[in-house]
Design goal:
12% strand; single chain; Rossmann fold; 296 residues; 8-stranded mixed sheet; alpha/beta; binds NADP nicotinamide-adenine-dinucleotide phosphate; N-(1-d-carboxylethyl)-l-norvaline Dehydrogenase, domain 2; 11 helices
């Protein structure tokens, strides 16, 4: 597709992310219409060639593909509910972050009104939008995704359709965010620990990096395979043995005056897994406790 025949696209919501989406569309040559509740946020985009719509209805009417990226699903609901049948014959792609339940509720609400809908989760920060490595998950009817895949490639090279369930993009999103936060929190906890003896983060960094590279990362495919198989063989470092080291981590955290909640959580879950008969299994057996935790 050449820049001359790019599909017209509307972007509703021009915060940091919505503005980045509109900029990427303009860069790729899409006729781009924009609307934001606070109109001045459209000024830079209009200077770049975007058309400013006076109302959300005018914005929707301008394009066959409408992207919405606002603060939350409550705002999406307010905007979509006020537009009645303005979306008929168009596709709404919602790139606002939320929960799977919010996504499924919205998909149902729009399906009842005959509106084509794709839910999306952006796994990137605004400067990455439009780049080949930018990952966006989509969920919704396959035919709708395929019809607009090429247009959506203008905002992210890594557009991935997860299937017809509108809730899956949000589920993948929070799962990856959880992975990021727990990993970074683990790093920060280790830096807090060594920091109690005036060890600078930079001094510890080579060991943390090597630990990620040679111990943590190579084990990930094995953990994933064991989780899928539901069997957790590990002759070298069984959970029963590891639980003792976790106990040292709890004690040392307390003794050094560092928050011991994170290691205490690990210790409690390891003990539960051992009680359930996983003492001779590997670390991946903790999934059994996390899946069926009674701690809510
Ligand atoms: N920024 C990131 O790194 C990033 C990464 C991935 C996903 N996301 C997701 O993308 C979405 C937008 O993020 P952002 O960074 O663009 O946030 P932001 O800069 O805070 O912008 C929020 C946008 O939502 C609009 N808005 C809020 N409530 C509204 C309402 N009731 N009616 C109409 N518009 C309303 C705001 O309009 P006004 O300008 O009038 O206030 C603004 O355009 C969020 O769901 C966020 O989680 C962001």
């Amino acid at each position: 597709m050449t820049a001359e025949n790019r599909a017209p696209v509307t972007v509703i919501g021009l915060g940091a992310m919505g503005s980045a989406l509109a900029r990427a569309l303009l860069d790729k040559g899409h006729p781009t219409t924009v609307w934001n509740r606070s109109p001045q946020k459209a000024d830079d985009l209009v200077a770049k060639g975007a058309v400013r719509a006076a109302t959300p209805a005018e914005a929707v009417a301008a394009s066959g593909v409408v992207l919405i990226c606002v603060l939350d699903y409550k705002a999406v609901r307010e905007i979509t509910s006020s537009l009645g049948d303005a979306f008929t014959g168009r596709v709404l792609v919602n790139l606002t972050s939320g929960t799977p339940e919010e996504a499924r509720d919205l998909a149902e609400f729009l399906a009842e009104r005959g509106i084509d809908y794709l839910d999306a989760a952006i796994m990137a920060i605004p400067p990455m939008i439009g780049q080949p490595e930018c990952l966006i998950f989509y969920g919704g009817p396959t035919a709708v995704f395929e019809a607009h895949e090429q247009t959506l490639a203008s905002i992210a090279g890594g557009g991935t359709h997860l299937g017809t369930d509108a809730g899956l993009p949000s589920l993948y999103d929070v799962a990856l965010l959880g992975l990021m936060w727990t990993t970074w929190t683990g790093l920060l906890h280790s830096l807090a620990l060594v920091g109690t003896e005036n060890v600078k983060a930079a001094q510890f960094l080579p060991y943390a990096s090597a630990w990620f590279e040679h111990v943590i990362a190579p084990e990930i495919p094995n953990i994933a395979a064991q989780v899928d198989e539901g069997r957790y063989p590990d002759a070298d470092s069984a959970l029963g043995m590891q639980a003792a080291a976790i106990e040292h981590l709890v004690e040392t955290s307390r003794a050094q005056g560092v928050d011991a909640e994170l290691p205490a959580f690990l210790k409690a879950r390891a003990e539960q897994a051992i009680q359930r008969g996983h003492g001779g299994d590997g670390f991946a057996s903790l999934i059994e406790v996390l899946r069926k935790s009674t701690a809510r």
